[in-house]
């Protein structure tokens, strides 16, 4: 199983709400390459749908998303060209499609929200989490950095201090911490979380849809939720200026050792 993106719609014909569910059984909804491609296609389709008023993004089976599907990594990550295509086309293609979507996006976060999950949540406009949700990007344990555009996105959403702790020390934070850092809008007990998310989606769907879309375009033009400086543009410039170097780590010892150690269920030896 490579996982899939489940999509369904609810609500009256003139107040439609979409539910997009990340589903990868047995892997805490880790994102496979197929899921990244499906996420991009789905949001490109949503962007063309003038009738939708809200999209709720969540994971299946009590977790949001635990990151990337590391079992796939040995098949492509050690080649710089394939690694670049993965991050620039598949991952950023999906995240960019979410960021360009004018429909309000609500993240319903439970359990693990790590790495790829944190990136996906960062693309949402309003984020609600259960009290036991956990957030991080502990890829330092896997021997590779976060791609520049993805790092800019996450930093804009969680703040520089939290992003540095996540990326440099593999720190994992709880929901109250992320609420205090202004990443989350609400933190709620798990038993009432789904009801609150549904009520919020219904409230958004009852409001003026054209105004909501114009507000999103205005906020996007102001680089929100990105930092005041356009970090994504800076990341793009960095990528252009360092075209040879950005993914040159693909075949490095640390990269290979980190992924091998994870798959072999042992501590890495850096």
Automatic annotation (TrEMBL):
SUPFAM superfamilies: ClpP/crotonase (SSF52096)
Gene3D superfamilies: 2-enoyl-CoA Hydratase, Chain A, domain 1, Lyase 2-enoyl-coa Hydratase, Chain A, domain 2
Recorded family membership: Belongs to the enoyl-CoA hydratase/isomerase family.
InterPro entries assigned to the protein according to its UniProt record, in alphabetical order: ClpP/crotonase-like_dom_sf, Enoyl-CoA_hyd/isom_CS, Enoyl-CoA_hydra/iso, Enoyl-CoA_hydra_C
GO biological process: fatty acid beta-oxidation
Organism: Rhodoferax aquaticus
Superkingdom: Bacteria
Protein keywords: Lyase
GO MF term list: lyase activity
Name listed for the protein in its UniProt record: Enoyl-CoA hydratase/isomerase family protein
């Amino acid at each position: 199983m490579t996982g899939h993106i489940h999509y369904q719609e609810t609500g009256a014909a003139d107040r439609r709400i979409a539910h997009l569910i990340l589903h990868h059984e047995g892997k805490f909804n880790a994102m496979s390459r197929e899921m990244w491609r499906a996420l991009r296609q789905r949001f490109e389709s949503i962007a063309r749908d003038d009738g939708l008023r809200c999209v709720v993004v969540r994971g299946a089976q009590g977790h949001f998303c635990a990151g990337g599907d590391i079992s796939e990594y040995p098949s492509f990550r050690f080649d710089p060209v394939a690694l670049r295509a993965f991050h620039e086309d598949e991952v950023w293609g999906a995240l960019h499609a979410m960021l360009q979507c004018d429909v309000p996006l609500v993240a319903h976060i439970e359990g693990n929200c790590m790495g790829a999950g944190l990136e996906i949540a960062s693309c949402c406009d309003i984020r609600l989490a259960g009290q036991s949700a956990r957030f991080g990007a502990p890829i330092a344990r896997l021997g590779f950095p976060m791609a520049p555009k993805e790092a800019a996105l996450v930093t804009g959403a969680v703040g520089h201090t939290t992003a540095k702790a996540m990326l440099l020390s593999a720190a994992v934070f709880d929901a109250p911490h992320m609420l205090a850092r202004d990443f989350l809008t609400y933190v709620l007990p798990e038993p009432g979380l789904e009801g609150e998310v549904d009520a919020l989606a219904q409230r958004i769907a009852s409001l003026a849809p054209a105004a909501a879309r114009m507000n999103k375009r205005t906020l996007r033009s102001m680089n929100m939720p990105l930092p005041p400086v356009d970090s994504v543009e800076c990341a793009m410039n960095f990528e252009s200026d360092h075209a040879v170097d950005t993914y040159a780590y693909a075949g490095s010892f640390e990269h290979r050792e980190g992924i091998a150690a994870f798959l072999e269920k042992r501590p890495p030896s850096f």
